Amino acid sequence: MAASVDSVETGRLPAPRPGPVPWVAMYHSVGDCSDDPYRITVTPERLARQLAWLRRRGLRGVSVAELLAARARGEGRRLVGLTFDDGYTDFLTGALPLLRRFGCGATLFVLPGRLGGDNAWDPLGPRKPLLTADGVRRAAAEGVEIGSHGLTHVDLTRADDATLTAEVAESRARLAELTGSPVDGFCYPYGTVDARAVEAVRKAGYGYACAIDPGPLTGPHALPRAHVGQNDTAWRLHLKLRLHRLRRRPVEGV
Ligand SMILES: [Zn+2]
Q1: Could you tell me the residue range of the domain that residue 53 belongs to?
Q2: Strand, helix or coil at 69?
Q3: Which positions fall inside the NodB homology domain (predicted)?
Q4: pLDDT band at residue 68, thresholds of 50, 70 and 90?
Q5: Contact 222, 252 (CB under 8 A)
Q6: Could you give the CA distance from residue 74 to residue 98 in angstroms, rounded to a whole number?
Q7: Virtual CA dihedral for 177, 179, 184, 185, nearest 10 degrees?
């Protein structure tokens, strides 16, 4: 086997065999979901039931950074990534108390170009306030991993070169300054991704990036995620997890 010959020649241990692509759940807003045209909101009661379901199955939600670090050590088979996109203020009031109660970590992908603003990029539906710089710092102080969702929520596959670089690299620099820690994770707005966007994210120094359904681009800089919404009861979550394990082939490096 080539891998073992390499390891003899280099004196290094062979890399652990890749497991199935890790399961990463995608949330956005946690609050009242009576007016929710994009189906991005779960109520705190639903989130609590979903976290309880994970616990019953012996699984635990963690940040994507923690998930990938565990897998790099050959561990983490019982960990699930929990991600919250856009950085809504209801993360602090709706999600964080439940994450704490269930002993879970999470990654929050924020938009440093829209701090204290709202979801102005959505043409329809209610305006939802976004965390201020102080709110992002409060989440970070509670142990939440802060990642970048770009500066302003632009579809990177349609962005020109200058915009692409600004959205990816400048957002990382601004968040590092805001939180005082390096920023390892990126999340593609709308989940749209192509090879050029992946390359820009990799070049900007991110260790990983989350997409939704990146197909052949799947890898550390294009991780698939499962949308988890208000309709996801225990039974539907069970199906989603089963389907994920069937459909996602092992990929090197994740
Ligand atoms: Zn988003």
Answers
A1: 22-31+38-246
A2: helix
A3: 78-254
A4: very high
A5: no
A6: 28
A7: -110
Q: What percent of the chain has pLDDT over 70?
A: 90
Q: Is 48 helix (H, G, I), strand (E, B) or coil?
A: helix
**233 C-alpha to ligand 1 centroid (Å):** 23
Neighbours of 47 (CB within 10 A): 22
Q: Write down the pLDDT at residue 124.
A: 87
CATH number of the domain residue 152 falls in: 3.20.20.370
pLDDT value at residue 235? 85
Residue labelled with tokens 């989350």: 210
Spacing, Cα 27 to ligand 1 middle (Å): 10
Q: What are the structure tokens assigned to 56, written together?
A: 């019953």
Phi-psi region of 150 (alpha: psi -120 to 50; beta: other; left: phi over 0): left
Q: pTM for the whole thing?
A: 0.90
- Residue 45 domain-assigned (yes or no): yes
CA distances from 93 to 27, 31, 49, 158 (A): 15, 9, 17, 34
Q: How confident is the model at residue 6, as a pLDDT?
A: 41
- Counted domains in the chain: 1
> Which residues have CB less than 5 Å away from ligand 1 (the ion)?
85-86
In angstroms, what is the C-alpha Rg of the chain?
Answer: 18
Span from the CA of 152 to the centroid of ligand 1 (angstroms): 9
